[in-house]
Amino acid sequence: MSAKKSGDMTSGSPVRLMIGFMVPMFLGNVFQQFYNIADSIIAGQFLGVNALAAIGSTGSLMFMVTGWISGISSGFAILVAQWFGARKYDRMRHFTAMSVYLTAGITVLMTVGLLAANKPILRLMNTPGELMPDVSGYMAVIYTGLIVTAAYNSLAAVMRALGDSKSPLYFLIISAMINIFLDIVFIAWFHMGVVGCGYATVIAQGISALLCFLYIRKKFHILHLKREDFRISWDSIKKLLALGIPMGLQFSITAIGTIIVQGAVNIYGAVYIAGFAAGAKIQNLVVSVYVAFGATAATFVGQNWGAGKLDRVKKGILYTQIMILVSSAVLMAVIFFFGRYLVLMFVSPSETGVIDAAVTYFMAVFWCYPFLGSIFVYRNALQGMGYGLVPMLGGVFELAARAAVVAVLAGRTSYFGVCLSDPAAWLAALIPLVPYYFYKMKKASKLEDQNQKSEKASKSSVFS
What we know:
The protein is mostly helical. 83% of the residues lie in helices and 0% in strands. Keywords: Cell membrane, Membrane, Transmembrane, Transmembrane helix, Transport.
């Protein structure tokens, strides 16, 4: 596959390239959400409110675990994107190989640790006793299958780093359909209950990982790894960890905040847990739009930063911010006018308490979507440049804001007050991100001007 065909974003219209990359990325995120959404819908419709609450209460925990894996995979892929943009394919393959070592080792450690801490974590989250068997069984299956989750995320991240966001989408569509089919088979036919949803998810993710691997072997010849690519370089490993760990922590820190919020919601009982879960699942589809814009920005910035094209970086981020604001206006209208009806995917119309709880959550958060989207613009832009610390700091600000709201309001005021922790977190996350982005761009512009002046002076001295 040639460089241009495989997704070169260093030339051509930034808007056209970014939209072309973003749309498949968004659809891929939506179908990835279908794993957990399908589990919730089928469990809620076939097994009832308690089953919906059981799976729904794991959403924040799932986000922490899969977010960490997705974060480190995306962080490792930044160097792949940069070397691809610089046309240094031997270095690109080397960093791909080193990321294989790191991802496998980290995933094994996670699996062992999380299986051992499964029930203690759930108790810390105030999981109701009647939900504990279903929740702990479901999460045990998910933890056991983390290796296939990591495999898919790593392979998809590498393909996206080379500009191919369509192929991971196709594989996700296939695996999402398989997941839905297996959910119905395991629950309706085999009567496996909530645990059956976990098995369906792991099997479907394993299929998507296998399809990614086979496609890379067939189509991406520049990614065919050789023995010398796997020679361990501690310097390369340090560089990968310097990007991967902050990005993984960024997701995990954010997820810890949502776990704290989930623990506060659990105090209000199964009806509110189910309503909050349904609202959060729909909210995740909204976030999928912003995740896609963010991933597009990271790849675009990574390739153009590696190619030394600063003007294209600036234009790409400006256009992304405009697209975020337009899409936010549409999403706000959808949630405000149709949120109540979307909840009916999860429960019957007779479950008015669950529906009202979900709508209460929507009213608490929908007005803040433009700020939520902006987080992904500036965070991923900085990551695409190779800066990982401040994006992680944005996650720390999110965590602090959520914890503060929960500490003040949980158990002392209404459920609505706890839901306000999300807008507080989104606004707080922007505090370090926006100033640091403009600081780095200003510094890079000055350095570029100095280099251009030096080149002109050098040419003048040659011809004088």
